[in-house]
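Hypothesis: this fold can be encoded by more than one sequence.
Test: take the structure tokens below, design a sequence, compare later.
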């Protein structure tokens, strides 16, 4: 039997490789991280529970959900930019074969390479790099700079951009082929606001080690920064859903799961918690003003 899915994957990898300038391999100290919100409900069940049960991380083309730009429909923007980036390799293939999106954690952040897309993340094993491609900036901006595991000129490029907002400062990664927890993941890293919760209990069933990062907590005294960053309506939402004068990943997730708030607004609320609920001031080369670096997705 002809491995059609493998053929599409090889075409995509070869197409990206043909567009990569000379560069060193991905630094051994870095890893690819795939972000998500573990507590978001999927058919009434926490996403992390579904992920562990299926032992498979699925793309938005399969799940119909996303923490970033969501447009998986035929004729949508994501299909268009994937076609351009991957040489049309996946144009006629099933949704299940399209790549998984993540980021290269080039700044070695404990919370992962692109916290805007989720409070928690999977750290991928090194051998997954052989089927991973990269671009900078985010694919929504139609980038012309690409990388592979063997040739990665993008780290130097990204580190050279000093006016990029913290949440936009990532090198996008695309994992081609299935992403399994038991064989492709090194660790599951969670936000500490989930300690002692149902998410914590579910995580203990994962076939990989569980770690905790520094966490994000935004006090009500800083909610006004949300207005400048994502709009006055997001500051209002912050006040409406806060508990004990604060916001955490868990509190934002609880607000999302009520179904009472616009999904995009909840996403933007998480952006504010991630941006202002942690001290990024000692992060070298990253923009710190809430009005800087507006190159990323809203």
């Amino acid at each position: 039997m002809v491995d059609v899915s493998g053929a599409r994957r090889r075409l995509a990898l070869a197409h990206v490789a043909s567009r990569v300038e000379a560069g060193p391999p991905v630094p051994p100290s870095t890893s690819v991280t795939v972000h998500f919100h573990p507590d978001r409900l999927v058919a009434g069940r926490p996403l992390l529970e579904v992920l562990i049960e299926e032992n498979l991380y699925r793309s938005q083309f399969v799940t119909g959900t996303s923490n970033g730009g969501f447009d998986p429909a035929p004729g949508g923007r994501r299909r268009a930019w994937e076609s351009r980036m991957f040489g049309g390799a996946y144009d006629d293939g099933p949704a299940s074969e399209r790549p998984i999106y993540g980021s290269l954690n080039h700044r070695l952040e404990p919370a992962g390479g692109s916290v805007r897309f989720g409070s928690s993340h999977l750290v991928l094993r090194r051998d997954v790099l052989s089927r991973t491609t990269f671009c900078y900036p985010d694919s929504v901006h139609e980038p012309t700079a690409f990388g592979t595991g063997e040739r990665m000129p993008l780290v130097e490029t990204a580190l050279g951009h000093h006016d990029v907002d913290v949440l936009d400062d990532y090198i996008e990664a695309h994992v081609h082929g299935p992403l399994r927890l038991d064989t492709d993941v090194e660790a599951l890293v969670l936000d500490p606001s989930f300690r002692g919760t149902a998410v914590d209990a579910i995580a203990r069933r994962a076939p990989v080690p569980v770690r905790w990062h520094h966490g994000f907590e935004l006090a009500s005294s800083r909610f006004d920064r949300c207005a400048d960053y994502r709009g006055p309506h997001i500051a209002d939402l912050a006040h409406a859903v806060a508990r004990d004068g604060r916001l955490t990943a868990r509190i934002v997730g609880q607000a999302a799961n009520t179904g009472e708030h616009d999904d995009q607004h909840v996403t933007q609320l998480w952006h504010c918690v991630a941006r202002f609920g942690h001290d990024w001031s000692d992060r070298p080369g990253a923009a710190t003003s809430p009005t800087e670096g507006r190159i990323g997705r809203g």
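The first helix runs from residue 4 to 17. Residues 290-298 have pLDDT under 50 and may be disordered.
Hypothesis status: open.
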